[in-house]
Amino acid sequence: MHLQRRDGDATPTSSSPSSTASIKTDPSATAADFVVPKPFDTALSNNFTAPCAAFFKAMLSNSSFNDCHPFSLMLQTSSSFFDASKSYIRITRTLEATCSVNSQQCLGIMDSLALALREDANCAVDYTNDNPQVLQAYNGLLAYEPLYQASCLRDDDGNYCYANAVTNTTATSDAYPYYLPLGAAMPGGARPTCNTCLQDGMAIFSAFGGNSTQPISQTYDGAAQQIDMYCGPTFVNKTATPLKGTASGISVSLTPSITLFIMLLVYFFQ
């Protein structure tokens, strides 16, 4: 492994590699006006059942959820994240925020919310009816851990791999692998750069790809075989190879965390 990965409770400082390693600048990205993007930061669709709309409102207004700055939920649902991705500095600051949280605590919150989302009293009907925003939320909650790990990878210069990928205008396919954990297949013509960022990111995804509860279980093998065709037959594992203790799964016996219960109680009885 060539890249560095943050621990779940590590806190970046002004002297962290991501703050100093790059000379890329953006005059518009001043510290004073930067706000960490949030999931679903545009108007939600009106195509929700009432219980599901209430669930989303409770989730998105909960400070414990928001303090996790979930990268997996920002990728497909955040307009401000999309805007931040246009600036190397802004997306780096976003990643510093998402990677400085206690990931194990946040994982418990995301797992609990994923279970609660599909309950009859919340969004079960909307999920069954393939409501796009409900499916995005569910997949994003499930994919929190693999995308936390992948988004916090750095290159040998200390720069975030995702920041490099999303701002690389000469290799526009570099960001595609980050959508695999959300259940989005890599386009057939995509050719991400064959570098250590891609190799180490796919190694993370391989460890989750064999877990049938994870959306990436449907996308990893095809992407890996595609990458190996042009990066070499040993560049990544062609099939998912989960490691013991690596991939977390949502099981029916998992009890929602106290954080979730408090969140719902505060919302419904305020």
Automatic annotation (TrEMBL):
Domain of life: Eukaryota
Start-end of Low complexity biased regions: 10-22
Pfam families named in the record: DUF7729
Domain DUF7729: 36-239
InterPro entries: DUF7729
Stretch list, region Disordered: 1-25
Keywords: Membrane, Transmembrane, Transmembrane helix
Membrane-crossing residue ranges in chain numbering: 247-269
Name of this chain's protein: DUF7729 domain-containing protein
